Amino acid sequence: MKKGMFIVLLMSTMHMFSQVEEPRVISLLSSKTIITTELKDLDATHVNLLNPNVSDSNFKEVLNSWTQLHQELNSFLKGRKFRWETKSKKIKMFNRFYFDNEGNISVYAFRFFNKISPQKENEFLNLMKDFTKNHKIRIKRREKFAQCGKIALPNNL
Question: What is the value of pTM for the model shown?
Fold first, then answer.
């Protein structure tokens, strides 16, 4: 009887965790207009992390955690031996992260300013799917939040 209850409990737990939604990764250059609507909807439900009404007294903490997230991203790409295959010294891009209130990444959207091949863009997109599952910003809020910005990642030639 106990063994049967354990199996039922285990199956229920596995089912519950399988329902967790995976973070979405979106390339803004290769996406359709439906994505624009989705991002507008997300903007309506996620406060801007740098909004003075949200983070005014904690601006330094916000800036440090935002910087740390991008340093982790660069280390992650290096660790995966990702090569951009372009001669540019810096990979300039726009990125936007949507976080739950615990700092977990729920959606990541990006757009390159450099010329990046479709194959490399797709490889980056797939790597970001892994990154968003295992990394988070080191900030928590009472509500969902978002942050965006232009960044320049070093090209690890």
Answer: 0.82
